[in-house]
Amino acid sequence: MNKEEIIVKINAILVDEFEIEESLIEPDKPLMETLELDSLDLVDLVVLIENNFGYKMKAEDFAGMITFRDFYEFIFSKIKDKL
Fold this sequence. Notes:
The chain has a single domain, classed as Non-ribosomal Peptide Synthetase Peptidyl Carrier Protein, Chain A (Orthogonal Bundle). It is built from 4 helices and no strands. It has helices at 3-18, 31-35, 39-53, 68-79. Helix 1 (3-18) crosses helix 3. The radius of gyration is 12 Å and the shape is globular.
């Protein structure tokens, strides 16, 4: 999977799980606010990433994550060795 395919997969997961319009997902938009994530939603997101990409995120992984682009880059950096 290349980076673009990963982004498409992440977006599809987010649209399905958080029931938002895909048009709302833009690389420079804020992740948490756009998805309206609360602490339980973050747990769901962690499980989704682990189930779909094999990487178990931790709460501190979200510390510097502001935009969807940050999220994509983080996931890509963690799974690139598995590709």
